[in-house]
Amino acid sequence: MSSLKERILGLLKSYKGSWIPQSHIHRALGVSKSRVSEILAELEKEGLVARRVVGRSKIVYVYPDIGEREVETVGKLIRVGLVFSSEYLFMSAFAKGLEASGYRVEVRVFNDGIKATRALAEGLVDISVSPLVGQLYLYPTYRTYRIILAGLWGGFRVLSLGRPGPIHSSAISTMDYARRVAVARGGLEADETRYYWSSDEVLKIKPGEGYVVTWHPIYLKLVEEGARVVYEPEELDVKFCCTLGVSTAVSNRARRAIARAYFNALETYAREPERGLEYYSSLTGINISTLKSATREYKVAEGLDIKLVRGILREYAPTIPARSIYEEAVETEALG
């Protein structure tokens, strides 16, 4: 057996029974993509792994009987994905907690929640704080991450731009869920749904007609330009938003450290919501005065559990695949 094949097997033994992005393997071992692909083809013939292509990405399933061994996150670097918003006000405490556990932190800000979750699923980031709705939606396709049910809620608005017309929302997100709830209540004369794919697109929506569901700080700009608030989060009873997705390529030890740092950061935010705003401002470019206003809107979510997940799924998930597969995404081991 070649030494590289042994190294790949050693790495894969950490992830028995899991799907992982193929890109994680060549990145973890510092070898060429083509050589990794050749060896995975051998392992597939031997019945040790299975591979499939999702979009432009390749993912690998490691059969449970391949063995067991823990491999640490490469270089102790944790790549974090976020969505551009005022929501992740706890990031300073979270980053400090990870650094205290010996990890380096690299943050990437995406302009759309689905992009952030896809980056997690495809191995471009190790963890992603992104909309729970999107994390659940993509899970059956990839199965390369788990969800820690904790985060903040609040901060969005359903706005009227003027006369009745289309309702604009981000897709497969908390905004999309809120759109569904708002329209179902019958208080909006929306004749169709139009999706935007970045925060910049929201600000280009033609004023004077229709509705917009969007988040802080984007909704502030629309209100300044004359948009009227129709619904706030409490009125729609949407008391969840983004949760923490963790790649299955992250070791158990790192996963526990991430979960511990994350919960501690949320507790710190609950006590001192304005702590670390300078750090978050440097990540996003959102000015500190705007972030201070966000601390009055975003609260630590309570009651995020399987019951909530099932309620969300009833709103939009098909019955093929069976809804039970989405529940597999919820992390439990790292919380023990």
UniProtKB/TrEMBL annotation:
Taxonomic classification: Archaea, Thermoproteota, Thermoprotei, Desulfurococcales, Desulfurococcaceae
Protein name: MarR family transcriptional regulator
Domain DUF7343: from-to ranges: 3-61
Signal peptide segment: none
A Pfam family that the UniProt record links to this protein: DUF7343
InterPro entries with a match to the protein in the record: ArsR-like_HTH, DUF7343, WH-like_DNA-bd_sf, WH_DNA-bd_sf
Species of provenance: Thermogladius calderae
CDD domains, per database record: HTH_ARSR (cd00090)
